[in-house]
Amino acid sequence: MSKGIDFEDDFLLVYLLYHKFNADGAFDSIRHFLNLKKNHSYLFHNIQFDFTAIPSCQFITVLPYRRSDGSVTVIFEYGKVYWNEISIETLKQLVFIVYQQLLRDPVSQVVGFNAIHDFSNAGIRLLRHCTISNLLLLNHVAFDCVPARYLEIHCVNGNFLLSTMLTLFKPFMSEKLRRILYFHSSPTDLLNYFPPSVLPAKYGGKLTDYYMAKWLQKANEQHESFTVKGQKNMFP
């Protein structure tokens, strides 16, 4: 499957780093990555409109500051999603673009990622796409295809949508994922894991303007050249 592909050295190295230089493990992940390109090619295309100007597309962003350990944090605000403004394909593209472009940073490759999933105001409209196939695809991409080190996944403002997702996905949830999942009864509980300087004000932090529109636009532009060969590292 990989015969004849002249992979970027940086692209191969991130898989080796993720698998602690176990070549067999790295090759398995790359094989999954190549199959993903074959079966879900739209993920490898950039978005052909200014999604940063559309409220529903602002459901995902990278927080501007890292924790003291160097890890980067991605925030998901599902209450912003309305299907008349964003398709499920574009939603998947955005998530894929964010993580793929963050992985071009050597610091993120080594230190890893945190995620905050905020279910506030996420209504029944989102249930239509909370299917087993979509949840399994998300899990497959995150843990089999993308060589990202996930440190912590925090869920806040839980509601019936989160409960439904957990009920559907629990039988397929790996022990690795269970270990890094955190559920909080209050959003300010995040202060036990993040300094105030990193968090938005609504979680008890100090950030008031945290949507990284310019970074996301650049990531989308860079993603246009993302082929099956991978990309070179990008130093911030």
Automatic annotation (TrEMBL):
- What InterPro entries does this protein map onto? CRAL-TRIO_dom, CRAL-TRIO_dom_sf, CRAL/TRIO_N_dom_sf
Q: Which Pfam families match?
A: CRAL_TRIO (PF00650)
Give the protein's recorded name. Answer: CRAL-TRIO domain-containing protein
Look up and give the organism this protein is from.
Answer: Trichonephila clavata (Joro spider)
What the entry lists under SMART domains is as follows:
SEC14
Gene giving rise to this polypeptide: AVEN_83326_1
Q: Which GO terms describe its molecular function?
A: phosphatidylinositol bisphosphate binding
Start and end residues of each CRAL-TRIO domain: 60-211
- GO CC terms of this entry: membrane
Top-level division of the source organism's lineage: Eukaryota
